Input
Amino acid sequence: MSSNTSGPCKRSPPEAHRTMKNTLLKLTAAALACAFAAPLFATPAEDQATFQAFFKERFPNVPVDDFKNGVYSIDPVGRENWEAIEEFPPYETAIDNGREMWETPFANGKTYADCLPDGPAIGAKFPYWDKARAMVVTLPLALNECRVANGEEPLKYAKGPIADLLAYIEMESRGQLTNVEIPADDPKALEAYEKGKQFYFARRGQFNFSCASCHLGNSGTTLRTEILSPALGHTTGWPVYRSKWGEMGTLHRRYKGCNEQVRAAAFEPQGEEYRNLEFFMTYMNNGQELNGPSARK
Output
């Protein structure tokens, strides 16, 4: 019996099915972006549910708790290489240096623990909304505020000693779950969240790209020779040792680099723009396990 190839339900060749699937994925991504672009119609919790559901649908074979591994959750070949690197991780020296920094007293005899008594395993406590100061507080910011309060010079935020100190703290925090809260009784906290969300979806630079352009709608596709990582899990593994850098770097160093890659004006690490972006992105990743420090290309 010949197959039915006529009428509105006629069968399509495999190539057509693949094209249709890709088109639907793009439409789904576009719909998601539109949903996020209407802040008056969604709460942060609704945003988060939509965001996480999108990636679960887009990558149905990836266990939810594996998104913390970034692009290696969807790239089996790259994962093999990454797992081999993790046998002798390039960030071990950074952890040792960070431990020494945490334990070494300041000139006045106090330590980081005097400012952060729950430390060093405090990764999941950041970022948080400081109602008294009406601002997002990140872990690097808190560490430098501790230094200044004790008469020490602040550390530069992109790389160097701050990345070492973060590596030690995040290593001690491994296994904790991301759990950012946005106080419902503080409109300024919601405003900071919305600013971070707007930044994430805003196109910028000569290439007219947004964060979402690569890591939401086109996640899993290839740009040049690189697979674009899904945004779910993006905040869990920092700081990272990047082969491209040949050293450790912080999350805000990566933000700055991404802006520069699309030929947009970058902002200063730990400025309000990037702290609000981190607030939004980390909230989107609530429930994901912290697994920093980590290694990337």
